[in-house]
Amino acid sequence: MNELTDNDELYGIICQHDHADELDTRLNSLSNVDEILMFLHLRDEQCLTLLMLAALYGKDEMVRVILAHSSDIPKLVELHGYVFRIDGTFVKNATALWCACDRGHYTVARTLIEIGGAKINNGPKYPLLIDAIIVGRLDTIRFLIENSYADINNTRNNDNYKFNSLIMAVIHGHTQIVAFLLEKGSRCDYVTPTSNNSALSYAAMKGYLEIVRLLCTAGACSFSKNRNGQTPLMLAAKNDRMDIVDYLLDHSDSEIGIKQLELVACSFIVVVNSNTIQQIQFQRMIRLMHKIYEIRQKKNLTKTIVQPIAAYAFYQECQIIEEFNKIEHDNERLYIEALIIRERILVPEKDETLFKPLLIIGDKLVEQEQFERCIHLWEHTFYLYQNMNLETGLHRFVWLFCRMLSANAYISPQRFVQICRLTFEPSQQKPKDDYIKNALCFLAIAIKILERPTLTKTERQLIYQWINDFSRQKRTTSHGQTLLHLCVDEQTYYDINYRPHDIKPILKFPNLAITQLLVTHYNQWIDINAVEATSGNTALHISCKNSIIDSLAVVQLLINSGAHIDCMNVHDRTPFDIAEANPIRTLLKIKQLPLRLKCLCARRILDKQLPYELIWPKETEMNSFLFLHGGLAKFSENSSTNS
């Protein structure tokens, strides 16, 4: 008898009889039993083994007979087939255990688990417990949990969300199953690794009030935050589940809850993915704010209102619903209201989500050429960053002033200097290269403002005083570059990477005007022969290797201001040695003749390796002079040898 005929006969025995001995006799007569048992039989559009068939029909004795005749029970038990679920849906990757559970044959299921070693977590897609929860099979769930076959807290679905049994029951709205799981000890504090949402979070989002009650009674925390900082209360409000909002507020701290609702109301218009806020989003904010004012009035909860400031156009937050009603048709005013509310709530919590809307609205103000309002807003934002001990720079102000120059807008010298003086704030004292480069950009902008003939003497003095105060700090980059190095280096221009399409047309480097200003009026703070740390280049070295035409004028200015032409970097190269442009090489050749006597003496001392370090104190002007004329290279060579 061929294999197909054998399977047909055995199929008939399982479907039509309850005589396990008949099946046993027939299997004993076959020489290829394992092949027959492992064969996936196609019948009634289903593809299944004899073991799956016996499980579907609840034939426990026959299941035991089949297991007894198999030489590889683990493989047989875990074979997958295609089967119709009891509700008629087609299921792929079904095992014999799944077939037994689907038909409610739990005696067979027990046999498969305890004798066949069937794996509980080997379901068609998810573990059997999760699969049963999805389709609402409380009987299967009871069987798996009450017999300790499935772990109620550690069983999770297989995808990235990692939902546990309780969360899966909540998501599918199975109230009875949620109640059963909680009764059997399911923990409420589990959160998904991708979103940090809890079971209560999902119940609030979905609007399942009865499940919310069950979870809260079981001790679920209504103020736990997910990865986006949203609590179950906030998720309920965001999804218009007001019955759940009312319930959670009645069972938690009302003051904290109200603040969370206010953040949700603000999020409808300030935390959006598009540049244009739709009217429906304003309406959602308005509806929720009305609800909040009603709750405040009912619970007698007042706000702490701060004084109005220029950053928010001197508007003050509404205190009562009547005040709010007056602004609800003014979208711009509603947006400012949202910013004020967020600041009141988020600043004490040092929550960084405060800032993004402030920066976005500033960008929009610039596009609308409301520059003064943007300056006030971003200055206020800068101090908020600083007060929270968060990193921030002044690059946005550089961009803002460049946009003003491009638009020929008036820049108030007083307001400009006020922003420039932010460079002295504690947060800007950190040794970050961007900070000194931003200050240099302010210098370039200051030069352009100083060119205006309408400036008063007092206004000019304000700008000069800031330049003096900044220059005397003698700040350098991490590579030891001074303001002068950066000012004469064409790389400074190429390094502008924040909105360069707006800034580069306005600010140019090398910058002859800034160089002139620094070496002429602030030379007591500017060392024209200072060397940077990496290559030991002076400002003259850097100017000479530039390829830009304007560099010739900068080189001439530096030389005329006292820059040493024959100074050497760590590679023993002078500015002439590294100059590439012929006009610059010609100028250097003219200027370096005749050689100065003190330069020749310095070279002689170094060539003879005289121990000058022992004659004069290290920081004296003489030692510095020798250092520039070859001592730097010697020092670098000795350091390399010692290391």
From TrEMBL:
This protein's UniProt keywords: ANK repeat, Repeat
Organism: Rotaria sordida
Keyword Repeat listed: yes
Classification via PROSITE patterns: ANK_REP_REGION, ANK_REPEAT
Domain of life: Eukaryota
Name of the featured protein: Uncharacterized protein
ANK repeat ranges, renumbered to this chain: 195-227, 228-252, 535-570
InterPro entries (alphabetical): Ankyrin_rpt (IPR002110), Ankyrin_rpt-contain_sf (IPR036770)
Pfam families in the cross-refs: Ank (PF00023), Ank_2 (PF12796)
